[in-house]
Each structure stands twice: as C-alpha cells, then as structure tokens.
Design goal:
30 helices
C-alpha cells in the first residue's frame, strides 16, 4: 500500500549527507576569523609574507588575480575547515575512502573539493558584501556569539559537555565565532539582494501553487488493511461503537504487519508516496474521523488521520507549519541563482594551486565523452613511462582516477565486443537472402508473423532485426568490417587491461585500507589468498554484519524485501551471501595447504563471528542449533591452529552444553 513505507523504516540515516550540508551551509556562509577595520568585521588578512602562488586557491576578476589577500584561500584556512568537517564525520563513525566514493558516500578528495568550492563562494560573498559596505560589524558578531555561548554555558550540564568536547568555554567560543557569521552575512546579503522577500514568496506561490502543494502538503495517518470490504466494515463498526480503539484494532487485525506493530501508524507522508486511492482518501479526510473502507490494489483500508497540513491560498500557507520551510527553500534556490548570475556579471572566477584539487577539478569537469577521453589520455601519459611502468609520485590521486576511468572503459569495451561477436554469429547463421533485406522489409515480415505459430520463422526475422539494429548502432554493414573492428577492440582491451591490472596492484600495495581498492584487487587477482580474505571480510562487514546486529534490524530488512522475494527474502539477505563467503574462504584459504596460518585464523574467526551472531538472534528458530554446530565446527578448526587457547576451548564447551539442551517447547497458552 505504502510505496515507501517499508524502505523508510529500515534505511540507516545518511549521516554524511547531513555533514555535507553542514559544510555547504555553515562553512559556505562562514568567515573564518575577523579583525577590526573601520568598525567593520572583516575577513582576516593572511600572513604578510605569503605569495599568491603559495595559496590553495584565489579569486580572479576578468581572468586576473585579485591582489587583495582577503580573496585568497590559504592552506591554514582550508585545512582548518577540512579537519573540522572530517572530525565531525569521525565522531559519527564515518571515515571516507581517500579517493573512491559511491552513491552513498563521497570520497575524501571529493569532500575536500566541495569544501574548497564552498570557500570560493564564501570569498565571492565577502567580495560582494565588502564592496556594498554591508559586512557584519564586530559589535553584531560579538553580540550574536555572546548570545549563543551564554545560552549553553549558563546550563551546568551543557557547560560540562562543552568542556569535555572542546576543552574549554573559550575554545567553544572560538568555534562559535568561526561559524556564527554565516547568519549575519547571509541575512545582510539576502536583505540587500531580496528586499521584498515576502512579496517574492507570495508571487512564487501564486505561480507554482500546484507544485508547492504536491511538495509540502503532509498527512500524519494510521491505517488498518484487511482482505475484504466486509471485514473492514465490521472492524470500523467495532471502533465507532467503542468496543476497541483504532490502534488496538490495527494491532490485532491489520495484515500490514509493520504498521500493525505501531498501532497502524504510517507516520507523516506527502503526495506521491501512496497509491492514488489511499492518497486521495487521506488528504480529503477530517482529522479524527475514520475513513473507509477504501479499496486499493493491496486490499481494503480504514484510515484515521491524526493531523494534516494542507492549504489552498497563500494566507493558509502562511498560517501553516510549513511556511518557513517553503520560504527557506525558495530563498536558498533564488540566492543560488543570484550568486551564479553575480559571478558571471562581475566576471569572478578562481584559480586552484593545490595539485590534487586542481587535477580533481579537471576530472570533475570532463563531463563529455570527448573531454573524458582527453583527460584519460593525459592521465595515462603522465602515469606511465615509455616502457609501461608506473611513474611513482607523492600522490595516489592520478592512479585512483585512472583506475576508475579505465574500469569504465573496460566495461564499455566488453559491451562493444559482445555486440561484435553477436554480429559475427548472426552473419554466420542467417541466410544471405535475409541479411540482404532492408530493415523495413524485415519489420514487415515480423508483423506478418505476429499471429503465426511458426517459431522458427519468428526467430529468424527477430535475429535479422537484431543484426540490422547492430549495423545501425555501430555503423558496420559487412562481416569483414565487424571482424576488423573486433580484432582492434580486443587488442585495445588487452592493452588497457594490462595497465589497469598494474595500477590496481600498485594501489593495493600503497593504500590497502581502501575498500574500493580491495574490490579492484579482487577483480584482477582473485587467486591471491590475502586479497580473497580482505574482499570477503569487506563483504561481510559491509553487507552482512550490520544485519546481524540484532533481530529487529534483520526483521525489518526481511519484511521489506518480502515484497520482492517473498519467503526467500531471508535467504536472499543472509543465507546466500554467507554461503558465498563461506564457500570461497573454505575452498581458497581454510582447506588448501600453503596458505599463511594467520589468514586461515582470520577466515575462521570471521565465520565463527557470523554463526555466533546468527545463533544469538535465532534462539527461537529451528535453525538455531544448526548455527551453533557451524560455529562449533569452525571453533574446532581454530583449536587445531591455536591449541590451548582458553577462549576457544571455553566457547566450544559452552556450545556443547547448549546443543545438549533441547529448544524450549511452546506452552499450552502459546499454542492457543
């Protein structure tokens, strides 16, 4: 029923994204330090001896450097902001991969680049404010800092926490002072750029009413889902008569087990998150009044809305709880648009001096295939000498970027080679009379055979159409041309794969702590026992271990994936991945002779940990004893490698005792 309900309940908050927003919001608007100058709080001047070429980056106007040091980004300033942000992530248990990001987290180099871009924008805002004479004064800054610091320091509990986290109130004050200017500077610039912001928001609402309603209207509701209209009506009567409460009825009767466990609560949701019938009923309902039965593809619903935020006029929006959010979102978007236009209008740009960040920007801006190819060729020319050996440098960014791009190119080559080989087969298998037909004639034949039972003819012309599609896509119309291109691409792939493998092995030797490097290493050398262990350890820690932390976490994931895999959801999440890890560790590390003992021990401990966790969260399951026996088996293997280890012997003894104790039989009350 609820398209996103299950997913929302199980997703771990993407905390790094909050940190990125923090950097983009706080750091972006902040001014690192201030000094008195004519009654104004002004960006701190840099060391008088520093040269512009010694900075991380600096602003330019019409292509020429701005000589005013206030528009330079020093290593001290940049490193301070980076360290603050990375420390914030670490406190949340998040450590970024130095060079490789994914859809869930950025790489550290990408994070650093984002902070640099925020600092560039900060300097541009400072340029605007200083030229307009609206920079915050020291008095304004100090008053705001005093207000915040006193608010927390006056509470003994907060004061103690501040001293524990920051060392002293003075240190905390310096941190607050570093970032508090964001509100002041932002407010002053917005007031200057958008003096009639409330009228602007009103006009925005009138011009985009439907879009705003879809985005911001919310309903907080509960539901009861049953199989039949009669059941829904009967339950509704029971609730309205006072025989049972809505939440009690949801817990007892609803077939949506996840919301039933919460008394039917679905929490807050907006437009587009529910099936249409449910959404319409919920948004039309009066809070506190039961609606239904409402039929959907999932069954019949009874709906009780607790609160809802809806509006049809601007005045209603202003009175609603979402007005501030609408105004803030609009203001931020308009400010972003203004800043972009201001940069263009004033011909303001920047130059990056720091080599890695400069190279990374070049990579980021290579967004077309031509630009990406040119960048890749540049990387290759600087990464390898004339004999194909890697040129060692102080940075691993070049080989990391090369690895990512080469991997992408290899995937593309595999796709092209597959198509060419398929074309070869089609040229060999199809009659010349069919190959000579035009695409239109082939399609006509396919249409004619649409209702035919002649499977052989259907397949023949289907293959002919596939060949014509390949010819159109690849621009090749003869077998000889296909063979020539295939030979060329296979040679290109072999050459690229050799370099790719060489770079990956270099990275694995240099930065083996990178999880992505471990994945690449496994891709190019899955016979190396150390790499096999590291790769399977990575899969276990990232994919399995979090699910085995407690039974409720696993149950949430299983319930969600049931919509895709039914009763096989648990096997999909746990059994199959663990079996894959277990099989490879046994076949390539634990069983073979000649593998280092420490790798065998590590592999065994990993499997012991997995089965111990499974047993701990499966005490009421029929497979509980199977998990215990598996754990015992691997402990016994460990005992052979580490004879006399008291912890291993003690755990084996404990498991033997558990295996002798039969599972508790259900009580008569439990079976009723």
């Amino acid at each position: 029923m609820h398209r996103r309900h299950w997913l929302r309940k199980i997703q771990v908050p993407v905390i790094w994204a909050i940190a990125v927003l923090f950097a983009a919001g706080v750091i972006w608007w902040s001014v690192a330090t201030f000094m008195s100058s004519g009654g104004k709080a002004r960006p701190n001047s840099t060391n008088a001896n520093i040269k512009i070429e010694d900075t991380v980056a600096y602003l330019t106007k019409a292509g020429s450097p701005l000589d005013d040091e206030r528009y330079w980004i020093t290593y001290t300033e940049f490193s301070g902001d980076v360290q603050d942000s990375l420390n914030s992530l670490k406190k949340q248990g998040i450590v970024l991969d130095p060079y490789f990001g994914d859809s869930q987290r950025p790489s550290e180099i990408d994070y650093r680049y984002s902070i640099l871009m925020n600092l560039v924008d900060q300097k541009i805002l400072s340029y605007y404010a200083l030229n307009k004479g609206i920079y915050p004064t020291n008095e304004e800054l100090n008053a705001k800092v005093d207000e915040i610091v006193n608010q927390y320091a006056s509470d003994e509990q907060y004061k103690l926490q501040i001293e524990q986290l920051y060392g002293s109130i003075d240190a905390f004050r310096k941190l607050v002072e570093k970032y508090v200017a964001n509100d002041l500077l932002r407010a002053k610039i917005i007031q200057d750029v958008f003096p009639n912001i409330d009228n602007d928001v009103k006009q925005y609402f009138n011009e985009n009413k439907d879009e705003i309603k879809d985005k911001y209207e919310k309903v907080d509701a509960s539901h009861i889902l049953v199989d039949s209209e009669a059941s829904a009506t009967e339950i509704k009567n029971m609730i309205e008569s006072g025989e049972v409460s809505f939440s009690e009825a949801a817990s007892e009767f609803s077939i949506d087990t996840q919301s039933a466990a919460l008394g039917g609560s679905l929490g807050s949701f907006g437009h587009g998150q529910m099936v249409p019938e449910f959404e319409q009923a919920a948004f039309s309902a009066t809070p506190g009044v039961i609606v239904g039965p409402v039929k959907s593809e999932y069954g019949y619903h009874l709906i009780e809305v607790a609160t809802k935020t809806t509006f049809d006029t601007y005045d209603e929006l202003v009175k609603s709880s979402v007005y501030d959010q609408v105004k803030s979102d609009y203001q931020n978007q308009e400010f972003t648009n203004w800043l972009k236009e201001y940069k263009t209008r004033e011909a303001l740009g920047y130059v990056i001096n720091e080599p890695d960040l400069k190279l990374y920007e070049e990579y980021k801006k290579a967004d077309s295939e031509e630009a990406k190819t040119a960048f890749f060729e540049k990387l290759e020319s600087t990464l390898f000498d004339s004999e194909g050996n890697i040129i060692i440098s102080s940075s691993f960014l070049s080989p990391a970027l090369y690895t990512q791009l080469a991997d992408e190119k290899l995937d593309n080559l595999d796709s092209e080679i597959f198509k060419l080989k398929d074309m070869e087969k089609l040229y060999e298998s199809l009659p010349a009379t069919v190959i000579s037909l035009s695409a239109e004639d082939i399609q006509s034949k396919i249409d004619e055979l649409n209702d035919s039972t002649d499977t052989e003819a259907k397949n023949l012309y289907s293959d002919a159409k596939k060949l014509k599609d390949y010819e159109t896509e690849l621009g090749l119309t003869e077998k000889s041309a296909v063979e020539e291109m295939l030979s060329k691409l296979e040679a290109e792939k072999d050459n690229l794969n050799t370099k790719f493998t060489r770079v990956v092995k270099f990275l694995y030797e240099s930065i083996p702590y990178s999880s992505k490097v471990v994945e690449y290493a496994y891709k190019v050398d899955n016979a190396n026992p150390e790499i096999i262990y590291r790769y399977n350890e990575l899969k276990y820690n990232q994919n399995l271990k979090p699910l085995l932390s407690d039974s409720s976490t696993l149950e949430s994931y299983v319930n969600y994936y049931k919509q895709y895999f039914g009763d096989n959801a648990r096997s999909f999440l746990i059994d199959y991945p663990l079996q894959s890890i277990e099989q490879e560790l046994n076949q390539k590390i634990i069983s073979p002779t000649g593998v280092a003992t420490d790798l065998k021990v590590n592999a065994l401990f990993l499997l012991v940990d997995a089965y111990e966790r499974l047993a701990n969260i499966s005490t009421d399951s029929p497979v509980y004893q199977i998990y215990l026996m598996s754990e015992k088996h691997y402990l016994e293997e460990l005992d052979k490698l580490m004879p006399g280890d008291e912890n291993i012997v003690s755990r084996i003894s404990a498991i033997e005792g558990l295996l002798k104790t039969p599972p508790a039989s259900p009580t008569p009350e439990a079976t009723e």
